[in-house]
Design goal:
The protein is mainly alpha-helical and 489 residues long. Helix content is 64%, strand content 3%.
């Protein structure tokens, strides 16, 4: 029974806590990357690679022993391993024992010379590498979708905002380049971290490789062992120095980059939520989608809101990673273990989930030019003041007199808008004032929104050509395989 006295069937899969990252949000590929199957089969692969390298360097390890281990890499008895861990209170030794029972011929040489971090840390580095390889294409899909959006709307004027107050005009496409540039920075940071990842290799209990010196009695062979195991495991480089673990600064760099990605996602999706409120731009909305259980007319930006929610979690995980690195005493301490299990997996699963939704958003953004035009027309009369002054000066007017005239008329028009809820009648007041008669015929051209957007279209084109296309070219094979993300998210 639970605390309220209700009966509980503990055999049901629905009475145990299940992370929404696995039941609701993240992809199957990313879930597998952090699964027990991936983790423990990787441990076994590492034991095989260690045995192969040790045999190559002269230890008495036979091909038959290695083949026996290879046959059982994926033959994992999870229940037996869990029971063994209850007895030993040690996850690695539990799996060593179970693997040894399955491989009686190889039992004497499994985990030979290694410490727990040989499988634990090296597996984490493989998982980090594979996780980054899953995320980078998702970031690129978002970049590609935003690039097309920027190009399509680079000429469409819209109100710019500073302090969330109407400012000078920009264009819809130019504004989107601000989001796009953030994601270019994320791709650069994450790709750099992916390329910089190394292997812990075989370093022994405190990083001195003492146990392997006992086995091989040759410093050069120990160094070769480190490199051979790394290459067998898919890495070209090892960390040159470690304690018992690779420095948790690596985790900090990875989680830091994902937290930074979270800030990019949150910034863009928060902007979309504001623009949805203005009715200028909306995320995809299906014909059968319900925005509110109480208010049928609503079109809540639930996708953007989900992205913001996941992104905030990503951002918050940075503090875990930085604090964990800062308290790793001397060669290591175990208070990183439980934290890493939570922080690393949730950072990647949250990033994966948010990018899936954001890909869907960016391939289906809906823009409403008439609403955008209406909002411009409400504010542009005030923004035209400088152009009106310049036009009057060209006609022989006095700048200071013209400035004062416009100041008074704009204040009067502003009062009509704010105090009486009326439309902005500033231009009507200009037309009615004889002082401005020299430029009345020019008012239409002076109020053309396209004359207020500066180099926005050119900036978009230059940005795409100079910055975006070179990044996308690196992923041309990935982009050729891109599929549309279902709107059913």
């Amino acid at each position: 029974m639970d605390l309220s006295g209700d009966p509980i069937d503990y055999s049901s899969p629905y009475v145990n806590y299940r992370s929404p990252l696995s039941t609701r949000y993240a992809s199957k590929e990313m879930q597998y990357n952090f699964s027990d199957q991936k983790k423990f089969s990787t441990w076994r692969k590492l034991w095989v690679n260690l045995a192969k390298a040790e045999a190559q360097l002269g230890l008495n390890i036979t091909d038959a022993q290695i083949k026996e281990m290879e046959r059982n890499i994926f033959n994992i008895d999870f229940n037996a391993a869990a029971a063994e861990e209850k007895l030993t209170r040690h996850d690695v030794m539990a799996h060593v024992h179970i693997f040894a029972k399955q491989c009686p011929l190889a039992a004497p040489i499994i985990h030979l010379g290694a410490t727990s971090c040989f499988v634990g840390d090296n597996t984490d580095l493989i998982v980090l590498r594979d996780g980054l390889d899953l995320l980078l294409p998702r970031i690129v899909f978002v970049i590609h979708n935003l690039m097309k959006f920027c190009e399509k709307y680079k000429n469409l004027p819209c109100l710019g905002y500073t302090h969330l107050q109407p400012a000078q005009l920009t264009t819809v496409g130019k504004r989107a380049t601000l989001w796009l540039y953030d994601f270019l920075m994320d791709e650069r940071a994450i790709a750099r971290i992916r390329d910089d990842l190394r292997f812990r290799g075989v370093k022994g209990t405190t990083g001195t490789q003492a146990s392997f010196m006992q086995l091989l009695n040759d410093s050069n062979k120990v160094r070769m062992l480190d490199q051979i195991v790394a290459e067998l495991s898919g890495f070209q480089k090892v960390y040159p120095v470690t304690g018992q673990t690779y420095t948790r600064k690596v985790d900090l760099e990875v989680v830091g980059a994902l937290s930074s990605l979270g800030s990019s996602i949150h910034k863009m999706c928060n902007d979309l939520r504001l623009l949805a409120n203005f009715k200028e731009i909306e995320e995809p909305f299906e014909t059968s989608q319900i925005g509110s259980s109480a208010m049928p007319y609503k079109r809540n930006p639930m996708r953007s809101e989900r992205c913001c929610a996941l992104a905030r979690h990503m951002i918050s995980l940075f503090s875990n990673a930085v604090n964990t690195h800062s308290v790793q005493w001397l060669e290591r301490t175990l208070d990183d273990s439980a934290n890493k299990r939570l922080t690393l997996s949730e950072a990647f699963l949250s990033a994966d989930a948010a990018l899936i939704v954001l890909t869907n958003i960016t391939q289906g953004l809906m823009v409403y030019p008439k609403v955008i035009e209406k909002r411009i027309n409400q504010e542009l009369p005030f923004m035209s003041a400088e152009n009106l002054i310049m036009a009057m000066v060209k006609k022989g007017g006095d700048r200071q007199i013209c400035h004062e005239k416009i100041r008074v008329l704009s204040q009067e028009a502003g009062a009509q808008v704010k105090q009486h809820g009326k439309d902005n009648d500033f231009l009507d007041r200009v037309r009615a004032d004889p002082y401005f008669s020299p430029i009345i015929d020019e008012l239409q051209s002076l109020l053309d929104p396209s004359s207020y957007i500066g180099r926005s279209p050119e900036q978009v084109t230059e940005f795409i050509n100079d910055e975006v296309q070179p990044v996308l070219y690196k992923y041309k094979d990935v982009l050729n395989k891109q599929t549309t993300v279902s709107l059913n998210i």
